[in-house]
Amino acid sequence: MAFGALLSQGIGDTIRVSLSAPPAEEVKVGIAILEALGLRRRRLEIVSCPSCGRAQVDVYKLAEEVTAGLQGMEVPLRVAVMGCVVNGPGEAREADLGVASGNGKGQIFVKGEVIKTVPESKIVETLIEEAMKLAEQMQADGVDGAPSVTGTPTVTVS
């Protein structure tokens, strides 16, 4: 935080964090910090649970597929991918778009409201479709950081 005052005044736009990883990863973490502090425009953010004994789906795989399907989307959108029906609904409700998974299905939330329940096999596809709708609506509303939506994200299900 030594540079916090400078960054808050708009002096500088990059943070490099020391990690045991390639330099490109260090810059990515620095950008994420700037976004979290509100010093850089927020982009697409995917949050997921760490998985626990309550998870009834493979959260890692689900989050990976959603991330891959939304890659390249640069809108200020928070997507929650949750693996249970205990804590999942609260986290999904707090996001712009989310899913609480369990019992072979997923409850899809948009802006805090359940809009539908889909079979587990349709969760990724549905989240991507809803993300595209939200991005298009944000563009129509002129929301800052919502560039034109071009192309169609790909869905990779293995």
TrEMBL record:
Keywords: 4Fe-4S, Iron, Iron-sulfur, Isoprene biosynthesis, Metal-binding, Oxidoreductase. The keyword Oxidoreductase applies. Residues 45-131 form the IspG C-terminal domain. Its cofactor is [4Fe-4S] cluster. GO terms for molecular function: 4 iron, 4 sulfur cluster binding; 4-hydroxy-3-methylbut-2-en-1-yl diphosphate synthase activity (ferredoxin); metal ion binding. One of its GO terms (biological process) is terpenoid biosynthetic process. The keyword Hydrolase does not apply. InterPro entries: Dihydropteroate_synth-like_sf, IspG_bac-typ, IspG_C, IspG_TIM, NO2/SO3_Rdtase_4Fe4S_sf. Pfam families: GcpE, GcpE_C. Residues 1-30 form the IspG TIM-barrel domain. This is 4-hydroxy-3-methylbut-2-en-1-yl diphosphate synthase.
